[in-house]
Specification:
Chain lengths: ~450, ~450
């Protein structure tokens, strides 16, 4: 069947207004935050319900079409890229909250629901959805689930995985699975709920999710301090863990701060710069205040830390967060090559030193930006394109040095993708985090749920 | 190969002292808490390391042997039963803590480690392992992982799943998989860690686990009160959820209490009996005290609750827990048929009423005991053998009425096994909690990791 015939069949399924194939739409919906591939989908479709998705999957199996599930397209690994004549399946029109149960503290929603809308809905019920990150204003729940999104509060609340109690999915083979029914306890066989969470749209479409909410946390206190030597990080992290309860523990380098100050027109918050800064957030209680002052006092007297800023209002807390949360956005125009690495927290310092050593030897003109959720061992290493280097050449160069960086990740038994997924970008490097045996099993699992490889092909495995 | 030749080969692998085949050992290691099957294993082996397990799995594949992984054998679904000439693989000798990392708050251990030993080890490090249940003194970490054990604090801390950050396994095909390396964040493909958790030993042997610990909770307060009408339960649960933080919310019926009083020689704690009792546990703070008194006051004035007992010491708290935690043990001599059901909490009352209605109509001589972790929607329904009925006849009768009870579970989109697993006992009823499509996928997954069905065959799928 030629492209035109396919389009007509898609219009049959979705209706005329829910199939777009103009260049602008194809370009818009064919990419995500990964600045690396050129979009080239055949069309973009906007399903309204599960039946349409079943029909689409059946059609794809019959005609060997390739389907790319598409959420807020805020990913950094090219999981939502459609560069090879795929059909993009946008969930923009399946974006509703379907029901809420106060007694179960649960929300049933469609996959296109924006993260921030769920957070705000929870607030109207005096409840809280704790998964949060810089892109919460445009990322969608379905995409969060597909990548098991993490973000800034994992140290306290865990990943997206922890908050999903039920999923409805259409597998790549076209069957509907109702997984876990929103139950908290259910020991009735293999955990397909968690198998679909984090599978990056390669096993099927999510058509509905049940999400657990919790009580709102106490008012939060935010503290930002400068760290004179990264060697002191773990000691301070350990002490801060006695706070009840630590919600975030973030690190960023002076280079990251300087770019944020410039791009966001913010004023330097410290009297002098330091190699690193740490932001922490925790429940604002009397006991924590006492504990915090103990930590700060001993760290100040040992000169581990320099300046300290403590929030005394929500506004000030938000302002402190800006220094950390604007990093990704501020870096965009510098054309960063992004690594999203994790190691166990105890090995972070040693790992960073080895990577720094390697990069220094490799190319002294390249700006290296460190930031991340170090409380969870998650480092966002960004390497910036030198002004004098062509974009293409830069990416080719990065692909080359990636091999060495991922060798180090492997040496430290770390992850080459802590929370961004594998997608297209990291697929060539999967073997640095998974054994051949495990990858072989991943391929078999993919084949099981999506025999004809119609779901997000070329991604992940 | 005949049994004798198999025994000689087993002795080759494990050594003479680590292979038992006397009747006493076979009887002891061939059963779990499920009072339902007669043990009949060929032998019991006691591996000391992973290599021996690989050799055993290879042998099993070659000779079509059936292997039953065996932990503390405290299960209630027959997951560790060896009644069909299997080889029991006991982890009693692989019971060590291998390492501890303060900075990562993590413990690497062997699967035979006793739950209580892990809890106590954590305490020596001023940390806490929060998965807890009545059988923690004999259950093993490997068994907990294999069944994704829950217990009494799930409402606050989640299931075993939440605390496992890494596993080493030997699959039924004989390969070693190292899953997740103890990382907190790792978005590199399908979640095999969670696939093995809760798989009841049907996919492979766990040879090592990495467990996350957390800070010790504040001192806990325990409250026990009598509930005049179960209809008021959800309202009270909702109010109690505002306590920061509720660690347990347990229900038990008067019949359960009366048996505990008799079997444990305890004194009735209340001035008069009520249909149900609720035990809750939470952080002992000033704020919670105030909140609690508000809840109690409104519930007392509406006569939802009767007597209230509040712990004022650890000893008193432990004594209050005895009324709840001794139920299972106290019931044992009454030959109970155990259901381990969950529904979403909002539907608990309606569900209980329907089951009560059915059982009353069915047989008025049968004692029905309700208890469970109702904060998570988990109900342990126990039906006691009438004195006049033969054991065999009773179980046959229960199998018959189970169909009707599980029909109700299905009607409420519940789980036929909240935390006990499927094992042998519930395998015939799996379709009440899983669709045919999902069961078909479960069989394919089993086949993938254990092609020749050597791992715990006849269980689960």
């Amino acid at each position: 069947m030629n492209d035109e015939a396919v389009l007509l069949t898609l219009i049959d399924i979705f209706g005329k207004n829910a199939v777009l194939f103009d260049t602008e739409s194809r370009n818009k919906y064919g990419i995500d935050y990964t600045q690396y591939y050129s979009p080239d989908p055949v069309a973009v479709v906007f399903p309204k319900n599960e039946e349409q998705l079943v029909s689409l999957v059946q059609l794809a199996n019959k005609l060997s079409l390739k389907l790319v599930p598409s959420g807020g397209r805020t990913g950094y690994s090219g999981g939502a890229i459609a560069a090879f004549k795929e059909i993009v399946v946008s969930f923009e029109k399946m974006n509703k909250i379907l029901s809420f149960c106060e007694e179960d503290r649960s929300v049933r929603c469609q996959p296109g629901l924006i993260t921030k809308e769920l957070q705000e809905f929870a607030k109207t019920k005096d409840l809280f959805y704790p998964v949060d990150f810089a892109s919460s204003g445009s990322s969608q729940i379905g995409g969060n689930i597909a990548t098991n999104a993490g973000g800034i509060k994992v140290i306290r609340y865990g990943l997206t995985r922890n908050w999903v109690t039920g999923l409805r999915v259409v597998t790549g083979n076209g069957e509907i699975l109702e997984l876990n029914n929103g139950l908290i306890k259910n020991a009735t066989g293999y955990d397909f709920l968690n198998l679909f969470i984090g599978s990056e749209g390669t096993l099927g479409f999510i058509t509905e999710a049940t999400i657990k909410l919790i009580e709102e946390p106490l008012p939060q206190k935010v503290v930002l301090f400068s760290l004179n030597q990264k060697n002191h990080l773990l000691n301070i992290l350990n002490k801060c863990r006695t706070l009840r309860y630590l919600s975030a523990f973030e690190l960023f380098s002076d280079k990251a701060l300087q770019i944020v100050l410039k791009e966001q027109s913010l004023t330097m918050p410290f009297s002098k710069s330091a190699p690193f800064y740490v932001l922490l957030e925790f429940d604002s209680t009397q006991e924590n205040e006492t504990l915090l002052f103990d930590v700060l006092e001993s760290s100040l007297s040992s000169q581990s830390i320099g300046d300290v800023i403590i929030s005394d209002s929500i506004e000030k807390a938000n302002n402190l967060w800006k220094f950390r949360e604007s990093i990704s956005l501020s870096l965009r125009k510098y054309i960063p090559y992004k690594y999203d690495i994790s190691v166990v927290p105890s090995r972070i310092i040693q790992f960073m030193s080895e990577v720094d050593g390697f990069l220094e030897k490799e190319n002294q003109e390249i700006d290296v930006i460190w930031f991340g959720h170090v409380g969870d061992g998650n480092l966002h290493l960004n390497i910036l394109k030198p002004k004098t280097m062509e974009k293409e050449k830069f990416f080719t160069y990065c692909d080359k040095i990636s091999t060495s960086i991922y060798e180090l990740v492997k040496k430290y038994s770390g992850s080459i993708s802590a929370e961004h997924g594998i997608g297209l970008l990291k697929k060539p490097f999967l073997s640095y985090s998974k054994s051949d045996t495990e990858i072989a099993y991943m391929k078999l699992i993919k084949k099981l749920f999506d025999e004809n490889n119609v779901m997000n092909p070329l991604k992940l495995v």
